[in-house]
Amino acid sequence: MKRFLFFGAMCAAMLLASCDSKEEGTINGVFSVSETKQVKFSSGNLQYSKTAGTLQFAEHQWVILGEERVDWDEKDVFDKFGWGSGDKPTYERCEDEAKFVDWGTQPIANGGGYQWRTLTAEEWEYVVMNRPNAINLIAYGTVEGAKGIILLPDEWEQPSDVQFTSLADTAKVTSSSIDVKNISDETDLTSINVYDAATWEKMETAGAVFLPLTTWSFSDDGKPTEGEYWSTSDDYMSISLASIWPARGCTVSAFEMAVRLVKDVVKE
Length: 268
Description:
single chain, five-stranded antiparallel sheet, 14% helix, 23% strand
């Protein structure tokens, strides 16, 4: 009987450990991207190492490497990509070469061997604006000095000792964007939710996703002012401090932008 009880306890402990373990390269929160499909986000923006010849996820969600890849000859690792350049990360995909190759179809060094993919423009729009309770699950924020937006998973349990304020009271949803209600008020909404690494770890463990600003357009202080993330079309997810456009039209698909991959949640 004692052996049986001991064996049972061991099995229970192993099962609990497996449930609590984090999937490599993955934020554990579950996000709806349509009425029937859910995904989990990767643990950081995509990077490419020339020396290793491999794609990889950034060490942390807030990490960005540089404004553009125009000087990529001088850098070993970069994190801006031409549209659909999954098979040729150093290549600037142009409009007349419209075959999209998803970065997620390529091996990712710290991606856990999972099948990753890029969101469609419609999926970006759904997760940002159209899923149930969406406006209460999004906010501007600053993590380790990096400004950006925070997305909370569908089922959110707020860590008891961490503050979070959504955009519900400070923004309005239009047909195509989320706009700060009073743009003339120069309050920087990223100053409302501010986290150091230790505090953000609690948010991330609970499933929160952070998308940092990635480009330096019109910057006076040398810090990013906008975020641009590719979709599977040449629409892209655009973040500024005044509005969030989850499916903004792009006329030049050779622009270099950030990539945040997802993997599908398989329902049993």
